[in-house]
């Protein structure tokens, strides 16, 4: 299957998407956690729990959290799954700095290691991790297929992939209500709090353009994953994808 990814960039059509995403998240790092939970009315926490709990039957001990941001998902995974070790990687040093401060406060700096890395080319050995997770990050990948294959490379045989991603509702009236929320409320609140006028217009645009449901399922299968499944939450506002190597 061939999927032609629509490239949406935060600031300018010129230049690499990865560099612009890094710049954007550096810019909003100071307010990211607050806005994340506020704009979702806190519902994102239940979506995150569902994603992490899907791994409980497999009891993973070594996890990789891609696009870890400020480490919220990695932290929740540590509390709910009690693995031996989690590596969290992200492009944004600003986000990672917030995350490292968070891990230090929790006394988890040794168990949750946060480092700067590009998921297009991970500096990690093949067949290393029992599970790879991505929470609300795959739509920011510069090359979706390449990123999925790179995550598969570092998974051990039989290892699990878990992706939780924001998606656009497709049915009336949620589709129309979401459009108003995403194009009016989200950019307004995001600009007021983060002071970045572009970031919270870019984020809903990527949600609308990103493949979802059966299309994403086929993309994952094309990237070499098996046992690919998906589940929609809250009228289609978020979708969980699970797969195996």
Which tags fit this structure?
9 helices; globular; single chain; alpha/beta; 245 residues
Low-confidence stretches: none
Mean pLDDT: 89
- Report, as a whole number of angstroms, the end-to-end distance: 18 Å
- The dominant shape is globular
Q: What would you call the structural class?
A: alpha/beta
Strand order of the largest sheet: 3-2-1-4-5-7-6
Please describe the biggest sheet, giving its number of strands, its sense, and whether it closes into a barrel.
7 strands, mixed
- Number of distinct beta strands: 7
Strand content: 15-25%
Secondary-structure element order, N to C? HHHEHEHEEHEHHHEE
Number of helices: 9
Radius of gyration: 17 Å
Q: Helix amount, in percent? A: 40-55%
In a few lines, what is going on in this structure?
The protein has 245 residues and is an alpha/beta fold. Helices cover 43% and strands 20% of the residues.
Question: If you had to describe this structure to a student in words, what would you say it looks like?
Answer:
Helix content is 43%, strand content 20%. By secondary structure, it is an alpha/beta fold. A seven-stranded mixed sheet has the order 3-2-1-4-5-7-6, with helices on both faces. Strand 4 (129-135), helix 6 and strand 5 form a beta-alpha-beta unit. Helix 3 crosses helix 4 (72-81) and helix 7 packs antiparallel against helix 8. The radius of gyration is 17 Å and the shape is globular.
